[in-house]
Design goal:
90 residues, alpha+beta
């Protein structure tokens, strides 16, 4: 992970640059999102793919997503590390 300073806004969102687009993603996980993530893992997804799918769904819930889920799945792993660190800081 690079030396980027992570700051979580009071709304409990993190700003990320995903697929060349700046987006805000909530770092709060409700029970349904936890089940979605664990279900993806149980179905054979890698942790990175399951996390990408979850992030995509979280963005889609808030607004239209300017990229395809497959593009997010191919994103650099550092993007997911930033999201995970923000969750841990929560």
């Amino acid at each position: 992970m690079d030396n980027t300073v992570l700051t979580v806004k009071e709304s409990k969102c993190i700003s990320l640059n995903l697929c060349g687009v700046g987006v805000e993603v909530s770092v709060f996980f409700n029970m349904k999102e936890q089940e979605f993530y664990l279900g993806s893992l149980s179905a054979g997804s890698t942790p990175k793919k399951a996390m990408a799918d979850l992030i995509y769904e979280k963005i889609k819930k808030k607004s239209s997503v300017p990229f395809e889920c497959e593009a997010l799945q191919n994103e650099n792993e550092e993007k997911f590390e930033q999201f995970i660190m923000a969750i841990l800081m929560e």
